[in-house]
Amino acid sequence: MPYITPLELAERPGAQELSQVASSDGQPLVDVALMDATLRGTDRSAWTPDQVAGADAALARIQDAVAEAGALIDGHLAQGGYALPLVLSPSSAGKTMLTAWARAISRYLLNANRISTEGQDPVVRDYRDALRLLGQVAQGKLKLGAEDPSTSAGAGSSTDVRFDGAPNVFGRSELRAFR
To answer: Which of its termini does the chain have fewer beta carbons within 10 Å around, N or C?
Structure first.
C-alpha cells in the first residue's frame, strides 16, 4: 500500500505542479483540469484520446515516483526494525507523517530537472527534512506516534504512570491544635 495516493497529491502539491513536472519531455503539458480529473479518477470524456493518453503517461510517472518514495521509506523503516508492510490507521499521527514524507520525496523525484538554488528551494528543503526524519526513525530516536508498532504494549513499555507516597504525618486535624 503506498504511503500517498494520487488524490492526496491532487490536494497538495496540486494538479498544476504535477502537470508541469510529470508531462513527457518534448510533449505539450497536460491540461491542468485533465490532470486533476486523472488524479481524482473522475470523468475525462471532454478531452481527446491523445490528451487522455498524455495524462495517463504523466500519472504513470507520478506513480513511479510514489513507488520509489515508498521503497525509500520502507528501507528506513526496515532499518529501524519495523515489520513491513506497515499498517497504521488513516487518522494516526504516524500515517500523517509518512504521507508528508512520501509527498516530499515524490515531489523531489518529479522535480529532478528543476533549475534552482538548492539552498533556498522548498522542494529540496522538504526532501532533506524527510530524509533526516526518516533517519531518526531508523535510529529509534523518533517514533511514529501512539500507534508506533515499535512501542507496543507487548514490547514491555507502558504509558501508565502511578505515584505512591507515605501517608501524611500531619493533617488539618493535627495542625488545628497549634492555633
So the answer is: C
pTM of the model: 0.80
How is residue 120 annotated by DSSP? G
pLDDT digits (tens, 9 = 90+) for 111-154: 987 777 777 889 999 999 999 999 999 998 998 877 777 765 44
| Contact yes or no for 130/100 (Cβ under 8 A) | yes
* 3-state helix vs strand vs coil in the chain, percent to 5: 60, 0, 40
Report the C-alpha gap between 85 and 65 in whole angstroms.
18
Residue for cell digits 504535477?
A: 18
Cα end-to-end span (Å), the chain: 72
* 177: enclosing H helix or E strand: none
C-alpha to C-alpha distance for 48 and 151, rounded to whole angstroms = 52
Whose grid coordinates read 533556498? Answer: 120
